[in-house]
Design brief:
The protein has 362 residues and is mainly α. It is built from 14 helices and no strands.
């Protein structure tokens, strides 16, 4: 029996390549799982902060028994919802009723793919990063509308319709503000937008170059997250709980999770688009040089970049939380008038000014 050495080498190289493909696939799972773990911890921190800040505004104590300073209260609530019975409406559309919450959560989770937490610390540095976020986030209201329709409940259906109308009304000004930022940065990549702001330090932030766009983006993102004073889809005085009325157990927890995930995404995009992202905002000084550390400089710079990004994002979260517990709810006609009659013309004017300035500077 004659063994061809060429065939043996071919078989060995094939098996080796297959092994490396499997290893490469496993390696790619690690950053995704790390991101999901970080997002989960971030949401738990937001829930705890909201309860503590709202308690301070209303001169209450807030959660204090579940863990130190009540920090485990969100975990206790999540466990309770997981163990509750999952009820289904007898005359509703069970398919739409079950799929709706999943669509709401998955569409928000996919938005984290293009968010840079530090230099080269992003899962997908795409050339259309910010517009991919807008495209993905526009899927969430479809899930809310499916949930409202599948519940076979007039309050739920009204809440779903309100969610769709509100999302369309405020997504257009939001997109126009993002387009203005893309024109200023000459790119739609989230990493390139942050790098464009790093040239002049603190004064290079798009917050100072686009103050009108920042205010419109701030209001529109709060409306997209359905936070007070824009929580018309789930107004308890009118619609019981809106599209969530018929939900219980894990499906209700998914809606609760989606709202806080969306709030965290909006805060991170405010940081990336307007507040300089992961940069320390001191021009011409790198972080390792600032601390006089050359060894392990890459890891230190990455860690500090993540910390700076999260600090800026949580500052915006503080503003969102205090707004929720300070301002009263708007009426549905006031909400739609604000979106269509004020924010849309203002964002269009801001885009025209930005385009004109870019053309003049050529």
């Amino acid at each position: 029996m004659i063994i061809d050495t060429t065939e043996v080498q071919t078989i060995n190289s094939f098996s080796t390549s297959e092994f490396f493909k499997e290893v490469y696939g496993l390696i790619w799972i690690v950053p995704i799982l790390t991101l999901i773990l970080g997002i989960t911890i971030g949401v738990l921190v937001i829930v705890w902060l909201e309860r503590k800040i709202s308690a301070a505004i209303q001169q209450r104590i807030g959660p204090e028994y579940a863990g130190p300073l009540g920090i485990l209260q969100a975990i206790a609530d999540g466990t309770k919802l997981l163990l509750k019975e999952d009820l289904l409406p007898s005359r509703g559309d069970i398919g739409l009723f079950s799929v709706g919450p999943s669509i709401a959560v998955i569409s928000v989770l996919l938005s984290y793919l293009v968010i840079p937490f530090g230099y080269r610390l992003v899962l997908g540095d795409l050339s259309i990063g910010v517009f991919l976020w807008i495209a993905i986030s526009s899927i969430a209201p479809i899930g809310l509308l499916m949930s409202g329709y599948g519940s076979n409940n007039k309050y739920s259906f009204s809440g779903g319709l309100r969610a769709a109308a509100q999302s369309i009304s405020y997504e257009i000004p939001l997109t126009l503000c993002v387009l203005s930022i893309s024109l200023l940065s000459n790119s739609s990549s989230t990493v390139d937008i942050v790098e464009a702001q790093s040239k002049y330090g603190f004064w290079g932030w798009n917050l100072w170059r686009q103050p009108i766009g920042f205010l419109v983006f701030l209001i529109s993102s709060l409306a997209e997250c359905e936070r007070l004073p824009f929580d018309l889809p789930e107004a308890e005085e009118e619609l019981v709980a809106g599209y969530q009325t018929e939900y219980s157990g894990i499906k209700y927890a998914l809606f609760y999770l989606a709202s806080y995930l969306n709030l965290l995404v909006s805060s991170l995009f405010v940081t990336v688009l307007y507040l300089g992202g992961w940069n320390l905002s001191i021009p011409y000084i790198s972080i390792p040089e600032l601390f006089g550390i050359n060894q392990m400089a890459g890891i230190l710079e990455m860690t500090i970049g993540i910390f700076i990004t999260l600090a800026k994002a949580y500052f915006f979260l503080f503003i969102s939380i205090t707004t929720r517990w300070t301002l009263p709810r708007m009426r549905i006609d006031q909400l739609l008038n604000l979106g269509w009659k004020f924010l849309l013309p203002i964002s269009l004017g801001n885009l025209l000014l930005t385009t004109s300035s870019q053309l003049v500077s050529l």
